[in-house]
Design brief:
The protein is an alpha/beta fold. The protein has a domain of about 200 residues: Rossmann fold, CATH 3.40.50. It contains nine helices and ten strands. Strands 1, 2, 3, 4, 5, 6, 7, 8, 9 and 10 form a ten-stranded mixed β-sheet that branches. The two termini are about 35 Å apart.
Length: about 280
């Protein structure tokens, strides 16, 4: 899987948390037992736990899984700082926040090779954020199969859906976007990426396994308060477009320069998805 820097993950976390659909998070909480065992796939620095834990029960046991030991080390530090009180527990932590006791363990694992290995302990919840648009349909199906075998609830947030609207407009907007989508379809470590088709692939894979599906829109709405994130996002978009060779270099440069100016805004589309085993629970 392509790597992500801790700086980028920290920069996007507030926008990620603001974008999540609150109704789907509430439905997730209703679908889970008071004492929940969760596995977070591709956890990065622990943002998904920080977003979800305040909405779940008072006793939580999390396993955070990532291929990058440096990201797991950063997750451990950031979670300890996020908690009201943090205690060492072997190689993991016990966090106390908002009346909840949250045990956290950290696991280095190559999810691309064997996603089922992360679920060996039989979790109640398998979750991820901003992951599945980077993965192939085949890998998505493998994850769905492993989750269904465990009988777990599945929730993922912030899967890119291909919708983008940048302001002010630029003549190269459509060409840049098409090139970005072409770049995204490349192999990011999980086979040819499904990109904007990921939520549909997830929904189909889980329905085939008898799950009830709920989805909701969770777009980033970025303006002056998110200027640093916008600048980084525009740089990455321009770089991806440039690498495809599908857009003239002068057009990429002009587009990128406009996006670095004050007054830039963007709406970047994502979708959240909740899948609940139909035989045991129904979405409210």
């Amino acid at each position: 899987m392509s790597g992500f820097s801790t700086d980028w993950l920290a920069l996007r976390e507030p926008a990620d948390h603001a974008a999540r659909d609150a109704g789907l998070v509430a439905a997730l909480a209703r679908a889970l037992p008071p004492q929940v065992r969760a596995v977070d796939l591709g956890c990065g620095t622990g943002s998904n736990l920080r977003a979800l834990a305040p909405h779940l029960g008072r006793a939580q046991d999390w396993v955070l899984v990532d291929h990058d030991p440096a990201l797991l080390a950063a997750a451990k530090a950031r979670l300890a700082a996020w908690a009201e009180r943090a205690e060492a527990a072997g190689d993991g932590l016990v966090l106390h926040r908002g009346g909840a006791r949250i045990a956290v363990r950290f696991r280095v694992l190559d999810l691309a090779a064997d996603p089922a290995a992360a679920l060996a302990e039989g979790p109640d919840l398998v979750t991820a954020a901003a992951l599945f648009d980077l993965a192939s349909d085949a890998w998505i199906a493998a994850v769905a199969g492993a989750v269904a075998e465990a009988g777990a609830v599945f929730y993922t947030a912030l899967t890119y859906d291909g919708r983008e609207e940048w302001t002010p407009p630029h003549p190269a907007d459509a060409a840049i976007h098409a090139a970005f989508l072409a770049h995204q379809a490349g192999d990011k470590g999980f086979g040819p990426a499904s990109g904007p088709g990921a939520t549909g692939a997830l929904a189909e894979a889980f329905r085939e396994r008898g799950y009830t599906i709920g989805t909701a829109s969770s777009p980033w709405r970025l303006g002056p308060d998110e200027a640093a994130l916008l600048h980084q996002l525009a740089e990455g978009t321009a770089r991806a477009a440039r690498e495809t060779g599908q857009v003239a270099a002068a057009d990429v440069a002009s587009w990128s320069a406009l996006r670095q100016r004050p007054g830039t805004g963007a709406v970047i589309g994502h979708r959240d998805l909740l899948a609940v085993p139909s035989v045991t629970r129904m979405l409210a």
